[in-house]
Design goal:
The complex is a heterodimer. Chain A is an alpha+beta fold. Chain A has a seven-stranded mixed β-sheet with strand order 8-10-7-11-9-12-13. In chain A, a hairpin with a 7-residue loop joins strand 1 and strand 2. In chain A, helix 1 (about 5-15) runs parallel beside helix 3, helix 7 packs parallel to helix 10 (about 245-260) and helix 10 (about 245-260) packs antiparallel against helix 13. The radius of gyration of chain A is 26 Å and the shape is globular. Chain A starts with 6 loop residues before the first helix and ends in a 5-residue tail after the last helix. The longest helix of chain B is centred in the C-terminal third of the chain and has 12 residues, at about 220-230. In chain B, strand 10 (about 185-190) and strand 11 form a beta hairpin. The chains are: A alpha+beta, B alpha/beta.
Chain lengths: ~750, ~230
C-alpha cells in the first residue's frame, strides 16, 4: 500500500481537479482507503470532462459507427481507420485546442497541431495533411482579437511548416460569440497500409514499457483539467497549463516512431497527449486488459525536483509510450538515439489489473485500471430547451429593408472576413510539402491529395456554422454534415466517413446540453442518410467566458475518395454554360447577409433535405465521371451571388466574368430579391460546362431528380446578375482579396 | 545517374526529392545520413528543404557542422555537382560554398506560393534544358529567402553571372511586386563561380509533375542528367 499523503493536501488537489465530494467518496470506496496525492491527480485527469466525455458519452453513442469501409471503429483506438482500397487505410481525426489558444495563442495552436499529428502516427499512419477550423471575434473589434488571430495562425504555421505535414485546408469564421473564447480545431489525416496498423494496447506480461521522445517538464501540468472548466478573468493564471511545442522534436519523433513500428518489435503504442503519462499507461493497460508497473524516477526530466504527481500529470509535448517485445529494449533505444530522442524503459506489463507507479523503490500509486478508464463517471445531465430559442427563430422579414444597391451589398459581403479570400492566411502555411497537393487551397470546395502509388485521390474538408446551430441545433447539425458532403461532391469525390469536434459551453447549463443533444441528433441523422459513419473525434465543453457560452459549433471533418482529376471551382472558358443545381427558397434566417448587413442573428436556418442532398452528391459524382463538369462550387455563406463571384475570382491570374439572366434566376417564383441573391438555401451547387453539353448536364440532373436550371454564361470582365448586380471582376477581387491586412 | 539526398534531422523535403529523381526521372537515389561522411559514390548531392536541426540558432547554422557537410564541401571543391533547395540553399550559404546570407522575408512571414522565375543563363549543369530568358513557375515555401550579399560580393556575382534564377512577373520583368521576399536583385537561385554548386529557394521537386500544377522544375533535374551525360 502506498504511503498516505497529508489529507488536506489531497483534498485540495481533488478540488483543483474539479472532483466533487461524491466523486472523492467514490474513489475512497474503490480503493478502500484514502487516495495518495499522485492517485487523486490520476483520477482527476482521467475523470475530467476532457478525457472521460462524462457529459457527452450518452449522446456520442448514438452516432452511426459501422460501415463497409470502416477498419477501426470509433473509440477503439486513437483515431478511426477507413479503407481506401489498394491495401491502404486512412486514419483521421479532429481535435480542439480552444482553451490553451485563448490564453497563449501561439503555443496553444502549435501544440494543438502537434497533438493531433501524434494521434495519427500512433496508428502507424504517415500524417499527410492538416486542416484548421478556426473561429475568432470580429477583427475590427478588440485589439486582443487580432493578437489571438495572428498568434494562432503563426502557431499553426511555425509548427506545421517545420514538422513537414502540409496544411491544405480549413475554415475561418469571425463572430462576436468567439471573442473571448476562440475555437481552434485541427484535423490530421494519415495513410497506413492495412498490414502496418499499430495497436494501442499493452500486451505480453513482462514486456517492457518504454518512454520515448522529449523529456518531461512542468509545462502543461493538468491541462486536461484546465480544459474542463470555463475561462475566467483568472485564466491567465492557468498559463502554466499550456504546453510548449517543439516541431523539430515532433518531426524526429514521427520518423523514429514509424521506423520503430516497421521493425515489428513494438507490441503497443500510445501518444502522450492530455493527461500525459497517466493516460497513456492506463489506456494501453485498459485496452490490453492487463496491469502495468512503471517507475517515474526513470522518466527523463527537463527540470529537477519534480514530484511523482507532476511527472504523471505533465503534458510536455512530443512524447510517446511504447510497449515492446522483451529483449528489444536496446535496439529500440539505439533507433531513437539515432534521431536524438530518449527511449528509456520505465516499467513492464504485469498480470492482474493494477496500475502501479513507483518513485524508485517507493510505491506512490496503486490503482485498479478499469476504475480509472471504464469506471469514469457518466452523467445524464439535465436538458432544457432555452427560452430564447423561439424568440431568436422569429424573423420579421417585413422589418428588414431590401438593399438599395445590390452590387454594393455583394462587395460588402465579399470583403467581410468570414467570406473573403483567405490567401493571406494559407500562404503562411506550407501547403505543398510531401508533393501530394493536387489542388491548391482556395481553388476548390475541398482539399484534394493524391495517394502515391495508387490511382486514388483523397478529398477532405471541415465545415461548421455556429449561427445555424444557435438558431436550430438539430438543423444546424444536419447542415454541417450536408455542407461537408456537398463540398466533397463538388470536387467529384464520394464521401466516406466523418470525424467531429463538438465545441459547446458548460454542460452544467441545461440549455447547452439541449444544444449538444440536438446537434448530435442532427449530425447522426445526416451521417446515416449519407452512409458516412463517424469514426471518432473530440468534445470540447466549457467554451464559456464571462459573457456566456459560445454558439454551439460542431465541426465536421469529412473524407472522400475520387479516381479522376478533381473538379475546381473557377470558371474556365468564355461561353461556358452556367447551371444552378438545387432549389432557392425564401430563406434568410441565419445568413451572413442578415448578420453583416442588418446586424441580426435571427430566423430559422435553411431547411435541409437529406434525400435531396444525397441525390445531388450522386449527380455530381456521375457528372464528374462523364466529364461534364468544368467547374463546381456550392452556395454557402453569402448565397448564390457570392458563390458566382467566387467562381469568377478563384483563379487570380485568369479571372472571368459571367452574365446571368434575371428570369432564369428567379424561375417564375416570387422571392424577396435579397433571399434570391444572398439567401443560403442548402443543396445548391453552381456548375459550368461546355455549352454543347449543357443539355446532357440537364438530362443527367433530371435522371437524378435534382432541379437544374441554365442561368447564364461565363464571359467578359463583369459579373452581371439581371438588372440587380453589375460588378467588375477587378473591383470584386479587390474587395475579396483585400480583407486581411496582415 | 546516381543522386544522393542528404537527410538531416528536420529535413522534410528529402522524400519529395527522392520521389522525383527515382520515380519520375528513373534515376538511382541513395539517402545520405547527416552523421555519415561517405557520399556513397554519388554524382550529384542534393541538400533538400526543411528545417535541419529545427533551424534553431539560425537556418543552416548547425547543419554546416555535420560530418556529411565536410564531405559535401570537399566534393564541391573537386567539381562535384551539388544542389541545395530552400533550406539546402541556406546551408550552402552557411557552409561558405556560396557567397552571401539570408535575411527574413520582408513580410516577416512564411510564404508558400507559386512564383515566376526568369532563367538567366542556360550554359550551366542546372539550366541547360531551359531557354535563356524563359519564364518558369515553381513554388516557394520559406521564412528566410531574402538574399543579401555585400557590395563586393554582388559585383563578383554579377560579373561572373552567378544568378541563375530571378523572381519576375509573368512576362519576365523583374519588378518589386514580383519579388516575394525582398531578395537582393531578385535573386532566387545562385551558383558558385565554378558553376558546379547551385542554391535555390524555389522548389523544383514540387513542380516536376503536371498533376501538381507545373512540371517546370523538372528542367533543373533534367539539366543535371544532360550535364553528366555530356561530361
Amino acid at each position: 500500500m502506498p504511503r498516505q499523503d497529508d489529507e488536506p493536501l489531497v483534498r485540495r488537489a481533488a478540488k483543483s481537479h474539479n472532483l466533487t465530494e461524491a466523486q472523492y467518496a467514490q474513489i475512497v470506496r474503490i480503493l478502500k482507503r484514502r487516495p495518495t496525492l499522485t492517485e487523486v491527480g490520476m483520477f482527476g485527469v482521467l475523470w475530467s470532462e476532457h478525457c472521460s466525455y462524462a457529459s457527452s458519452k450518452i449522446y456520442l453513442k448514438t452516432f452511426p459507427t459501422k460501415g463497409k469501409r470502416i477498419l477501426v471503429a470509433a473509440g477503439k483506438e486513437n483515431a478511426g481507420l477507413v479503407d481506401i482500397g489498394d491495401g491502404l487505410g486512412v486514419a483521421f481525426k479532429v481535435e480542439s485546442h480552444n482553451h490553451p489558444s485563448a490564453v497563449e495563442p501561439h503555443a496553444g495552436a502549435a501544440t494543438g497541431v502537434g497533438g493531433i499529428i501524434r494521434d495519427i502516427f500512433t496508428m502507424g499512419a504517415r500524417p499527410i495533411a492538416l486542416f484548421d477550423s478556426l473561429r475568432f471575434g470580429p477583427l475590427n473589434g478588440h485589439q486582443r482579437t487580432r493578437f489571438l488571430f495572428e498568434g494562432v495562425v503563426k502557431g499553426i504555421a511555425d509548427y506545421g511548416n517545420a514538422v513537414g505535414v502540409p496544411t491544405v485546408g480549413g475554415e475561418i469564421y469571425f463572430d462576436e460569440t468567439y471573442r473571448e473564447n476562440p475555437l481552434v480545431n485541427v484535423m490530421c489525416i494519415g495513410v497506413v497500409p492495412h498490414k502496418a496498423v499499430a495497436k494501442g494496447a499493452a500486451r505480453g506480461i513482462g514486456n517492457p514499457v518504454i518512454y520515448v521522445g522529449s523529456s518531461t517538464g512542468r509545462d502543461g501540468l493538468g491541462g486536461a483539467s484546465f480544459a474542463s472548466r470555463e475561462l475566467t478573468e483568472e485564466s491567465e493564471a492557468d498559463r502554466p497549463a499550456v504546453q510548449l511545442g517543439d516541431p523539430f522534436a515532433e518531426k524526429c519523433l514521427i520518423e523514429a516512431t514509424l521506423e520503430a513500428l516497421a521493425t515489428g518489435d513494438v507490441v503497443g503504442i500510445q501518444d502522450m497527449g492530455a493527461a500525459g503519462l497517466t493516460c497513456s499507461t492506463c489506456e494501453t493497460a485498459s485496452r490490453g486488459r492487463c496491469g502495468m508497473e512503471i517507475d517515474v524516477a526513470k522518466v527523463p526530466r527537463r527540470e529537477s525536483g519534480m514530484t511523482p504527481y507532476e511527472v504523471m500529470l505533465s503534458e510536455s509535448q512530443e512524447r510517446m509510450l511504447l510497449i515492446a517485445k522483451k529483449g528489444k529494449e536496446a535496439a529500440i533505444t539505439r533507433l531513437f538515439a539515432r534521431w536524438g530522442l530518449h527511449a528509456v524503459t520505465i516499467g513492464r506489463v504485469t498480470g492482474g489489473d493494477r496500475m502501479r507507479v513507483f518513485d524508485g523503490s517507493e510505491l506512490v500509486a496503486d490503482l485498479p485500471v478499469a476504475a480509472l478508464t471504464h469506471g469514469a463517471p457518466v452523467y445524464r445531465r439535465p436538458v432544457k430547451r432555452p427560452a430564447d430559442v423561439a424568440r431568436r427563430q422569429r424573423l420579421p422579414l417585413r422589418a428588414i429593408p431590401l438593399p438599395r444597391d445590390y452590387s454594393q451589398t455583394l462587395l460588402q459581403l465579399l470583403g467581410s472576413p468570414t467570406i473573403a479570400d483567405k490567401a493571406a492566411v494559407y500562404e503562411q502555411y506550407d501547403h505543398m510539402v510531401q508533393t501530394n497537393t493536387a489542388v491548391l487551397p482556395g481553388r476548390s470546395d475541398a482539399a484534394v491529395l493524391r495517394v502515391k502509388g495508387t490511382d486514388s485521390l483523397l478529398a477532405a474538408t471541415t465545415d461548421a456554422n455556429g449561427t445555424y446551430c444557435l438558431l436550430d441545433p438539430y438543423e444546424g447539425g444536419k447542415l454541417a454534415v450536408a455542407e461537408a458532403a456537398r463540398n466533397l461532391a463538388c470536387v467529384g469525390a464520394e464521401p466516406l466517413a466523418v470525424t467531429d469536434c463538438l465545441n459547446f459551453g458548460s454542460p452544467q447549463d441545461p440549455g447547452v446540453m439541449w444544444q449538444l443533444r440536438e446537434c448530435v441528433r442532427g449530425i447522426a441523422e445526416a451521417c446515416r442518410a449519407f452512409e458516412t459513419p463517424v469514426t471518432g473525434g473530440n468534445v470540447s465543453l466549457y467554451n464559456e467566458s464571462p459573457s456566456g457560452a459560445v454558439d454551439p459549433t460542431p465541426v465536421i471533418g469529412m473524407i472522400g475518395l475520387l479516381q479522376r482529376p478533381p473538379v475546381t471551382m473557377e470558371f474556365k472558358d468564355e461561353g461556358d454554360a452556367i447551371i444552378l443545381l438545387g432549389e432557392t427558397r425564401e430563406e434568410l434566417g441565419g445568413s451572413e447577409y442578415l448578420k453583416l448587413i442588418h446586424g441580426r442573428k435571427q430566423g430559422r436556418p435553411p431547411r435541409v433535405d437529406l434525400a435531396g442532398e444525397r441525390r445531388l452528391q450522386r449527380l455530381l459524382a456521375a457528372a464528374a465521371r462523364d466529364g461534364l463538369l468544368k467547374s463546381a462550387h456550392d452556395c454557402a455563406e453569402g448565397g448564390l451571388a457570392v458563390a458566382l463571384a467566387e467562381c469568377c475570382l478563384a483563379e487570380r491570374d485568369r479571372m472571368l466574368g459571367a452574365s446571368l439572366e434575371a428570369e432564369a434566376l428567379a424561375s417564375g417564383r416570387r422571392l424577396r430579391l435579397d433571399a434570391l441573391l444572398f439567401g443560403e438555401s442548402a443543396g445548391r451547387v453552381v456548375i459550368s460546362c461546355e455549352p454543347r453539353r449543357a443539355d446532357a448536364a440537364a438530362a443527367l440532373a433530371e435522371r437524378f431528380n435534382v432541379p437544374a436550371r441554365l442561368i447564364g454564361r461565363v464571359g467578359g470582365g463583369r459579373l452581371v446578375l439581371g438588372d440587380w448586380i453589375d460588378a467588375g471582376v477587378a473591383e470584386m477581387s479587390l474587395a475579396w482579396r483585400g480583407a486581411f491586412k496582415l | 545517374m546516381k543522386f544522393g539526398v542528404v537527410v538531416f534531422p528536420g529535413s522534410n523535403c528529402d522524400q519529395d526529392c527522392v520521389q522525383v529523381l527515382r520515380d519520375v526521372l528513373g534515376q538511382e537515389v541513395v539517402p545520405l545520413w547527416h552523421q555519415d561522411s561517405s557520399l556513397r559514390g554519388c554524382e550529384c548531392v542534393v541538400l533538400p528543404g526543411g528545417f535541419s536541426y529545427g533551424d534553431y540558432l539560425r537556418t543552416g547554422a548547425i547543419a554546416k557542422l555535420s560530418p556529411v557537410m565536410k564531405s559535401v564541401a570537399a566534393f564541391a571543391k573537386d567539381g562535384g555537382l551539388v544542389i541545395g533547395i530552400c533550406n539546402g540553399f541556406q546551408i550552402l550559404l552557411e557552409a561558405g560554398l556560396l557567397p552571401g546570407a539570408m535575411l527574413r522575408n520582408t513580410s516577416l512571414r512564411f510564404i508558400c506560393r507559386y512564383v515566376n522565375l526568369r532563367v538567366e543563363r542556360t550554359d550551366t549543369p542546372f539550366t541547360n534544358r531551359f531557354q535563356a530568358g524563359q519564364v518558369v513557375r515553381m513554388p516557394i515555401a520559406h521564412n528566410e529567402g531574402n538574399y543579401i550579399v555585400d557590395a563586393a560580393g554582388l559585383k563578383r556575382i554579377t560579373a561572373q553571372g552567378q544568378a541563375l534564377f530571378r523572381y519576375c512577373d509573368a512576362d519576365g520583368q523583374v519588378t518589386n511586386t514580383a519579388n516575394p521576399n525582398g531578395s537582393l536583385e531578385a535573386i532566387a537561385g545562385l551558383c558558385n563561380e565554378a558553376g558546379n554548386v547551385l542554391g535555390m529557394m524555389p522548389h523544383p521537386e514540387r513542380a516536376s509533375e503536371p498533376a501538381l500544377g507545373s512540371a517546370d522544375g523538372r528542367g533543373v533535374f533534367e539539366s543535371l542528367l544532360s550535364a553528366v551525360a555530356y561530361r
